[in-house]
Amino acid sequence: MIKQLFLTVGVAFSFGLKAQTFITDFESNALPDYHNTVYNDSTNVAGGFQSGHAFFHTQWFNSTFGGYYSGWAASAHYDSTTAGYTNLYGCMAYKGYNNSNVYAIGTGYGALTIRLTDSLIGKKVTGMYITNSTYAYTSMRDGDFVAKKFGDTTGTGCNCAQGTYPDWFKLTAKRYYGGVLQNDSAELYLADFRFSNSAQDYLLKTWTWLNLSNLGNVDSLAFFLHSSDNGSFGMNTPAFFCIDDLTLSMITGIQNVIAESGLSVYPNPASSEVVINFNTSQAAYVKMRIVDVTGREMFTQNMNSFAGENKLRVDVSEFPAGVYYVIINAGENTVTQKLIKQ
Predict the structure, then answer these.
(1) Which of 252, 271, 289 lies at the terminal end of a domain, its last residue?
(2) Are residues 267 and 178 in the same domain?
(3) Does the pTM of the predicted model rise above 0.85?
């Protein structure tokens, strides 16, 4: 059999059916003026608002202190510069993903939930785009009256080398299925200062894809924020983050369109060259990317696979050491594999 050499992730495909995709982009939550406006339906006794095929839970307490205690708001508050708690609804990317008008911002020091509704209950969540809120980003960048400046060891008294006094801010997503919180999880670092090379430290300020396809079937999503900066009352880092384009999928028919199996990425960790392969049951159009943790594309290629084994040797020697993700899109499906570059 003739083998075609190209880069992707090991995935086995079956064909003949279609995956319907549903994207919650919050544009349906029309705001009266696409500037400095938000929507979280404080009058809704159910505690939240509907957008697309999902319900976004909100708890209210006192509008004097900015509105909501925990939960979600659809936002068109275009402010990526003002620091502090007076800017609860701003996004560091300024506007929504792909420069859209509306995004959502969530806050909560416990579980922050999104509940799937109607025909999408119990179906698969492909993923969503994530970035920092302006409030959280500027707090980590500069410090404030509660939270520390990330990467700043001044006053610690340890004379710590870079990477030995690590700062980080992490989002963890889990799923509810059958009314039970499952152990499956997906993570994204909104800030990471744990690298031995300070050039790799980052605060996320662009929209970055969080792959959730490995969670399986979902009734609700639960999000948890954790930080390296904590005090006697819990996390000091402002518990805010932004999302857009929540993507859900539903397989129609009796076969799976894509089965996540046969993955082969080696060596991993890699230092100079990596081999990535997969098998397809017949020819398929594939889009492949390698991105870093901030979503910056390091390599991209569009291709047609052959039936059978497909693989490629890729030179990653020029990639800075760190974590990368190999992402393959085939039709409506997305699969992601972590790659470590030494």
Answers:
(1) 252
(2) no
(3) no
